[in-house]
Amino acid sequence: MAEPLVRIRNVKKSFGRTVVLDGVDLDVATGETAVIIGASGSGKTTLLRCVNALEDYDDGSIAVDGVEVRYREGAGAARKLRGERELSAIRADIGMVFQLFNLFPHLTARENVMLGLVKVRGKSKAEAKDAAEHWLAKVGLADRMDNLPSQLSGGQQQRVGIARAVAMDPKVLLLDEITSALDPELVGEVLAVVRQLAADGMTMIVVTHEMTFARDVGTHLVFMDGGQKVEEGSPRELLKNPRHDRLKAFLSRLEMH
To answer: What are the residues facing 96 on neighbouring strands?
Structure first.
């Protein structure tokens, strides 16, 4: 059996005395879309941030394509943190789209997408421009490439954020509540882009409150509560017939469409 592209084992993380991740395991194979659901404070975003080495994890292992993300070698307290240069190279293969759009306000949509391609991937400006225009067109923004973020709707800004992440050709794409800051009428246009990425075989880990999207697009669903992975399985099966009382209680508070 092939090694999963993303392999998370017994990951633990605390902020002070507050345990945020308590022994989380997760495998994501190439081309899969793992969807993580759970109440606020259940550890979902922290897990994504650990995968992208934006947060240290106290114990356990996170490997992407066989490479341990945050640490070089050793175990427990003897582990050595990677330096920033190493981390930058690893992060370049782990795309992340955030809840807030994080676009540079003084750069156009095209320039926002080009920046990482030139600075991190070392592409020429001509190559970066071609890639940026290709991906902005793919997310439906061919006519908005010269616009500044302030001239774009929230949904359009988030689509620029997705184009920027995918243009880097990451091995895995992390999506953290990417619709939660949007007006309801803009949610569909962003999720449509993600649906297409899933159909095209992009490997993704998606944190979302959009249960219909989770059911239709996820290859497997993970429910987290209290920093633990409580239940995992087929999205359609789990959302229709949750086995664990904590998942039943969580779903009962949501309105399924």
So the answer is: 174
pLDDT tens digit string along 132-183?
A: 999 999 999 999 999 999 999 988 999 999 999 999 999 999 999 888 877 7
Strand partners, 62: 8
Number of H helices, E strands in the chain: 9, 10
Strand pairing class (33-37; 204-207): parallel
Query: Rounded CA gap, 215 and 78, in Å?
Result: 42
Q: Which residues of 154-185 are buried (b: 16+ CB within 10 A; e: fewer)?
A: bbbbbbbbbbbbbbbebbbbbbbbbbeebeee
Q: In terms of pTM, does the model score above 0.85?
A: yes
The 67-68 sheet, strands edge to edge = 18-28, 6-15, 59-64, 67-68
Q: Edge-to-edge strands of the sheet including 94-97?
A: 94-97, 172-176, 204-207, 33-37, 220-225, 228-233
